[in-house]
Please model this.
Amino acid sequence: MNLKNQEMVQDLLLGQGDKMGIINKEKYAGVTIKQVKGIFPIFDSFFTLEKFDHIVEIGTGNGGFSTYIAKQCIKMNAKFTTYDINKIQTKDIEDYLLALNTDIITKDVNNDSHIEDIIKGEGRCLLLIDGALKTPQFNKFAKLIKVKDVMMTHDYYKDETVSEFGTFVFSEVEKAIDDNDLIIIYKCFENYLWLCVEKVRDLSYDN
Ligand SMILES: C[S@@+](CC[C@H](N)C(=O)[O-])C[C@H]1O[C@@H](n2cnc3c(N)ncnc32)[C@H](O)[C@@H]1O
Model:
């Protein structure tokens, strides 16, 4: 991350009163994860209010954040599937996730129809997008998610001038939000670089 982005993240966090963190410094289960420090209380509150039948994560990475999500899924009796094009590096973390009933899929999510079946399947789904190509994935899954499903996409910058690899800004997804009747919910996540949207109506029936 360049200095400008670091300063921007700092500003966002200072705006929240969190003087501690910048991205890449949060840890879970002893594993460093690619999240802004202070993210877990926000997710804890979110999962107190919102329940899902299936959580799907794109971008397992080193599995630290996945471990947190897996534990949330056990609490709410939800299934958890996590995708990454690469295998988890640490066997202990992989074993831990498997023990937490996680379905770990090592595949390129852009060439996989199973994820589409999961999302179209029964029950409320939360899709967490934290792989590489955020904008095309947002645009694709905006169409596929069902009414009441929630889609959260990471590395979202409110500053439209940011164009680092792996990041995205509002103007890149605005049309998909409008076209698919998505609304932004839990704006507090934006300070942690997550954009959170929910589908409120299925427009495909209007045509
Ligand atoms: C930023 S890291 C994930 C960080 C993790 N969610 C965390 O919070 O620590 C992005 C991950 O997406 C994976 N990835 C990139 N492109 C992918 C693709 N097409 N399909 C599946 N995974 C992909 C990468 O291998 C990498 O592990």
Remarks:
- Residues 33-35, 58-59, 61, 64-65, 83-86, 108-110, 130-132 surround S-adenosylmethionine (CB under 6 Å).
